[in-house]
Amino acid sequence: MSTTRRSFLRVGGLTVAGAVAGACSPSAAPSAPVAAPIATPAAPAAPPAKAVWEQEWEQLAPAAKAEGKLSLLTLSGPGYRKGADAFTAAFPGIAVEMQQFSSAALYTPKVTDERKAGIYSFDVALTAVTSMLLTLRPIGAFDPIRTAIFRPDVLDDKAWRNGFEAGFPDNEKNISYVMSEELIPRFIVDTNQVKEGEVKSARDLLNPKWRGKMVLADVRQGGSSPMLASFRENFGDDMVKQLLVDQQPTFARDNRAIVEGVVRGRYAIGLGNVDSFLQSFRDEGAGQNVKGLNFTDAGAVATAGALFLMNRAPHPNAAKLFINWLLTKEGQTIWCNFNSWNSRRLDVPPSSEEIVPRPGVKYFYAARESTAAAQAASRAFTEKLVP
User: Fold this and answer.
1) Is residue 280 scored above 70 in pLDDT?
2) Residue 197, exposed/middle/buried by CB under 10 A (0-12, 13-18, 19+)?
């Protein structure tokens, strides 16, 4: 038993000693250092994927250039041609063919007759709202313009006065888009007779001081209908009666005569579509005594530019490109500058500050389908007052 124990210790001691000696022996090879891994160059980051609208925009221009043409229907005016040329400059290779008309009485029969014959001449129309909706919508002349607008800088609510949605004048908010608005018709005053702050509210027109001293566009010819509809809506029928009857205004069919009457001091206050005539007097050195009048509690607004996308457009890609370009800040700046319009875009300077709709004022929007009945009723009412 003891021998076995001593033998075990001896053998165990030798084993431990051998292990220690082996570890301390100079002939023992040192551990090889571990090699650092070789760095692999990082692959270049993939460019961020373009948004869907960017891809569509990049594809749209070449498709429109392949069509080679855009066909526009517009009202009369040199600014339309200049704006169209600016579009061609932005997108070389797309020629703009334009037909201009002085009134709806000329272009609505043309479009109607052509469609009966299976002819589709126009891609986009830039015209008045009501005539298009009343005469050409029933024959299916339009495609929804809403589906053609896709740029986010155009769809941005913050870019437009009263938001993007406010630009649709039709009840369905689908067929047309209004890009510019301005106050109409215009009240002007002779500042030698009407002192600053003396007429702020529409109700101030009823002051006996102005009896017999106002000249208004002839209501028997539909003159000033939007403004009178605004007065009826805001103040009631009695206010309109007092203005048109009790205040004994003069009615004029010629807007130039309205301006001249105020410029010469024959009248203290005038109402009509007067801006271009007032400017012509100022160019001649007269009219410095005349200024525009904006009320704080009522007014009327109309559009100077409403867009329609024609059904079966012969150049659909060019039409879509033009509509989206025209509604951008760049397009609106160019187009409204050439046509002296006030864009609804808040990032585009107005052509005239005097006719910009003011925040907080209850306006009557003449170029909207929803107000057509009210305008007709107002005209019928005023015709009874002034037969």
Assistant:
1) yes
2) exposed
